[in-house]
Amino acid sequence: MDEITIDDIPALTLGAGVLATGGGGEPFVPRLMVEEALRRHGPVPLVQPGDLDPDGLLLPLAVVGAPTAFAERFFNGSEPRAALTALERHLGRKGVGVLPIEVGGGSTLLPIAAAAELGLPVVDADTMRRAFPRGELTHFHLAGISASPIVLVDTADNLVIVEATDNPTAERLARAATTAMGMIAVGALYPVTAAQAAAHAIHGSLSYCAEIGRHVRAIQEGAADGYTALLAATGGRIVFTGKIVDLNRRTEGGWARGTVTLDDLDGANRTLRVDFQNENLVAGEDGLPLVTTPDLISLLDVETGTPMTTETLGYGQRLTVLALPAHPRWHEPDGIELAGPRAFGYDLDYVPFGGHGE
Amino acid sequence: MDEITIDDIPALTLGAGVLATGGGGEPFVPRLMVEEALRRHGPVPLVQPGDLDPDGLLLPLAVVGAPTAFAERFFNGSEPRAALTALERHLGRKGVGVLPIEVGGGSTLLPIAAAAELGLPVVDADTMRRAFPRGELTHFHLAGISASPIVLVDTADNLVIVEATDNPTAERLARAATTAMGMIAVGALYPVTAAQAAAHAIHGSLSYCAEIGRHVRAIQEGAADGYTALLAATGGRIVFTGKIVDLNRRTEGGWARGTVTLDDLDGANRTLRVDFQNENLVAGEDGLPLVTTPDLISLLDVETGTPMTTETLGYGQRLTVLALPAHPRWHEPDGIELAGPRAFGYDLDYVPFGGHGE
User: Which of A75-79, B190-194, B199-203, B342-346 has the lowest mean pLDDT?
Assistant: First the structure.
């Protein structure tokens, strides 16, 4: 891909649903926003970080907050552009491209909409190659890059700028502001140069997202080898197929937290539990963790192949539990320390991808 | 006064203690900060709003947060200047003077320190002529002036800028950020021109504060007519003299809330209760309100004349309960609606100053 057209949006939305791993919120409104922006402004060039002026400023964008709130408060459409132009004003310079912070959920689509509106290319990269529930869980943070200044814009056009002395503090202050904003905002964080993105962003993330989406669409359309192709393209595996027998979901401290329990569909008497904090973080069977963060756990509707968010889960749903390996940088010791299960308060070690249950 | 010297600080501190009406926190650290600034940079010109370029930007400053926290987190000294220079950067223009938002507690002293450091005059005015626990309780808000942009700087050099579409939202977002900052910050809010301050600020507030302080110092020094002079200068009255028999204090939602109950010292079997939210807001006897916000209720140690903050109250203390009338603008219907007892959740009407119990 060297540009993103309106025809790419269905696949990107599906891929973003898989990479959202339960978080990211319903993509309905972000999808409308990006389709409207592309309809009005035409295709957006998709560029590599190395294609841009190395000293040029990239405008990074993500959805911030608890996905639970996304169903209650709709974006009005102006937030992404407002956040990025406020960042430009604050820094006193213009951006040369828009960079997605994460390629999960609405955070994948809004940067494309903003790029269309600002007449800028979007960069085929991100900082997570998935969604994560906290803004410091990025390869930029691993590289020592400041998340500040962070610009937050809410659905009522209120603006907050955070300049913290370290990234965990930035996350804490931004989360407090987002909670007061009704638990949802568009955030511009980690302003970097194209050279910094070339060195530290995860290259090809939007292409990867679109590729996953095309495979999911093939599954939805009944392609016989749909899952085989998806697993081959991603190195993923299917760890469980089951029916929801228990669901526990609450909004706490700006996050949607909970667990979903599945009984298997084959009468084998197996039970899988998935723990989530916005995103699915741990999948375990009989107390034995099978897949843990930073690897990806996505729940797909068995019949339709649709990636499910934690908000759309319901008792009795039949789901395919798909696991994808995280980008290899996440598997290094500092990656595991930052984004492994202990970082989320779980008293268990990271399980190497495929380490159990194969 | 046409300048503020280091010799004016004791009286200003005492006056600020009275006008803090229990809030504003212990003035110890702000006093050290302003004395250090005046020692280093010399006296600060004290000017009237009309003395300045009408289009010139005033840099307004206040302490924000729960006074309870002031005893635990000390300002490092750089916050006032950091907040005002961040405001200048954000607005893209330089200030011509520093304006206190309130003349209660540390909020009186820090603007003087900042003015000394920035080489600017301080304006002899404020927007409350007292302390209030919420940033929208100002004459500027009554005049329809936006509190945004609000710049907050905490004791660890973190910075938050809030640009809200209305002042109650600005207050809510700023309070959420301040709470995440450890419940204390220095805030620059309501940036105005000198012409706006000339029209809508309360003129002479720093002089008034110093005058009150000089009378309190006379009381402390045992002047026979000390209270008489204080009451004559302010139109105030002493509503009670008693001993603390009950004290109830908690930190809630970024505020110090509670009640203090006094039994009278004359064996007359009278009991007075004062309700506070950072500041003392209602004083009542046997369920009958005697003095209510926006009028001022200050508790002074009977022996030493020292104005007490809610944090320094303790069982058995003997206190003089001093009531001062609010600035007349507060007594107009919109002033009562904004800052009267119902605005703080009390189910009672404003009691005209001196209306009961005389």
Answer: A75-79
Contacts with B164 from chain A: Cβ below 8 Å? 158-159
Quickly tell me which residue has 């723990």 as its tokens: A275
Contact B249, B256 (CB under 8 A): yes
The reply to whether B162 touches chain A by the CB within 8 Å rule is yes
Q: At what angle do helices B205-220 and B9-19 cross, to 10 degrees?
A: 100
- DSSP per-residue letters across B88-149: HHHHTS-EEEEEES--STHHHHHHHHHHHHHT--EESEESSSS--SSTT-SHHHHTT----S
Omega of the bond prior to A121 within 30 degrees of 0, cis? no
Q: What are phi and psi of B349, to 5 degrees?
A: -80, 160
List the single best residue of A90, A157, A161 to mutate versus B (max B Cβ within 10 A): A161
Q: Do the Cβ atoms of A94 and A85 come closer than 8 Å?
A: no
A156, A158, A173: residue with CB nearest B160? A173
Asked if ipTM goes beyond 0.90, one says no
Q: Per-domain residue ranges for chain A?
A: 3-205, 225-344
**Domain B234-344 classified CATH 3.40.50.2300?**
no
Tell me the per-residue pLDDT of A25-75, one tens digit each, with 9 for 90 and over: 778 888 999 999 999 999 999 999 999 999 999 999 998 887 666 666 678
DSSP state string for A167-219 = HHHHHHHHHHHHHHTTSEEEEE---EEHHHHHHHSEETHHHHHHHHHHHHHHH
Q: Does A155 touch chain B if contact means CB atoms closer than 8 Å?
A: no
Residue A160 in contact with residue B161, Cβ under 8 Å?
Answer: yes
- Closest partner residue to A160 (CB to CB) among B160, B165, B175 is B160
Contact indicator for B300, B358 with CB cutoff of 8 Å = no
A157 neighbourhood in chain B, CB within 8 Å: 165
Confidence of residue A357 (pLDDT cuts 50, 70, 90): very low
- The C-alpha atoms of residue B329 and residue B325 are separated, in whole angstroms, by 11
Residue of A nearest to B160 (CA): A162
- The CATH homologous superfamily for domain A225-344 is CV3147-like (2.40.390.10)
**DSSP β-ladder status, B44-47 and B122-123:** parallel
Q: What is d(CA B41, CA A62) in angstroms, rounded to the nearest whole number?
A: 45
- Listed in sequence order, the residues at least 6 apart from B84 whose beta carbon sits closer than 8 Å to its beta carbon are B59, B61, B95, B98, B114, B118, B151, B188
What would be the CATH architecture of the domain defined by A3-205?
3-Layer(aba) Sandwich (3.40)
Closest CA to B294 of B259, B332, B260, B250: B332
Question: Residue A358: is its pLDDT beyond 50?
Answer: no
Q: Could you report the per-residue pLDDT of B200-214, keeping only the tens digit for each? A: 999 999 999 999 999
